[in-house]
Write a structure and sequence with these properties.
By secondary structure, the protein is an alpha+beta fold. The protein has a single domain (4-55), classed as Ubiquitin-like (UB roll). The chain has 1 helix and 3 strands; from the N terminus they run E-E-H-E. The chain has a 3-stranded antiparallel beta sheet, with helices on one face.
């Protein structure tokens, strides 16, 4: 089984923004959750989530302007 890459996001409290805190590699979603919690547990997070890298849709990229076609 080929490993998948996940981006890890977290917030410290309900008033703070969800922020990117790092990345993990794992063969499945459940192990990605465990690895993220183990690696990024240095803070008492209110919420932490992992997102498969292939699920992220880039809106803008550094050095390029966004071209969004509507309708």
């Amino acid at each position: 089984m080929e490993p998948k890459y996940y981006e890890v996001f977290a917030r410290k409290n309900s008033q703070s923004d969800l922020s990117h805190v790092g990345s993990v590699e794992a063969p499945n979603d459940q192990l990605a959750q465990v690895r993220a919690w183990y690696i990024y547990d240095q803070h008492k997070w209110k919420e932490m989530c992992v997102v498969p890298l292939e699920a992220i849709i880039t809106v803008t990229e550094e050095g390029k302007s966004a071209k969004i076609k509507m309708g």
